[in-house]
Give the backbone structure.
Amino acid sequence: MTTPHSVTGRFTRAYPVYEIATDKCYFLKDLWRAHDLDPEADILRELAEQKVEHVPKFECGNDILAHATESDLYVPIEVSSGDSDDDASSTENNGVDALPARREHSWAVNKDLGRVIRRIHHRFVVDFIGRPLHTFKNSKQLMQVVYDAFIAHQQAYQRCNLLIHRDVSAKNILIDENGRGVLNDWDLAKHEGELKRRRRHEKTGTWQFMSCLILQRHHSIHTIQDDMESFIYVMLYHALRYLEHNLRDPPTPEVLGDIFDYAILKPDGTFYGGRNKETLFVSPTYLGSQGGFAISSVPFQSWWRWAHKAASRWILHHIAKNEPVDEVLGHIIKEEDHPPITSVEKLQFRDHTEMSQVFATCLASQLWPANERPPVDAVPDADIESSSVNLKRSSGSAGPLDDGGSADGSRKRSQLSDRSWKVRSEPVQFPSQTMITRGRVNKGISHKPVKR
């Protein structure tokens, strides 16, 4: 179930509903979507038409005619969510009755009041009521559920004109009544062609599970590789928090905060992050191949080793590709100081294929533990619904946001870093020289850069 925490933004409400005529329960989602995002009902129809597996079964729904906000008409510029190809003053409304023309004299005297998005009331019903991912029974089921969601992502991309989910996260992968996975919440999905045509490129997704390249702005267009990296973070997060592993120092809660919550507030009021995620992959001593980190489940550990290596090669490829040439010493720097950039065709992250094969091979292994310890929450007083999935970052906004995936001011706090355990105040030095502090959350951000 979902309830809104603010009267602005998407104001998402979602809950089970009962239909008397069929004597059956369904799930209803009611929200105010940004006008330049495709209606989620249309996306679910497309997924159903193309027979994409492991997605919610669409029943009915659409935009509610004449239910559209008009606040944007009274400000100088209507701000899109960052995904629109249209001019900001466009009156296109995806089937909603035409709105009045923009007022000539704005009452907005503060430039911040100009950040207003036109929103359209949207409601639909699906024949699916799932349970949260963190209720998995063992490591094999966790992998199976995430693999099912990965298959949905792969099929949507291949069958639905290169459709990309763009918000792979713990909250958006659910478990069905048969113990299998479902990739939910397709409201931010876009076709690859639309993304490449955008005028504005901003971050979209759930902060803790967004790729390090997006968070660090190495590239601006959301790709399938960004979502594939997000699947890795979902697996790693649940392994660290619930499964048996050998990580003791630093404590698991601190590592979770360091990797998933790390962000820096810039002077212009925007956030960026991802440094610790990059360190996770490019440094062999931080949970990497030489870091000593091990999960007790052998097939799960094998999957993690492959995923770590594949993601690190992809990230290093993009870092090398974007490394500027030294204007002063470029002519004398030795070739070995600048190794050749690996072609994309040779990278395991080039598409879904190899990652899907690795999932399937690990699941087919005979080495899954027969008497595995049941999942135990390492952060028992932090709600997974609030700690790992509610810091959403979307286009057109200044920082990690709420339930919206669109620009608004309602922010939620990360309870993962707001719990009552005793934390250290000194900075921790990571191999990449990223400096962070252990501390309480500040406007949804739990770590700040150290001033030296």
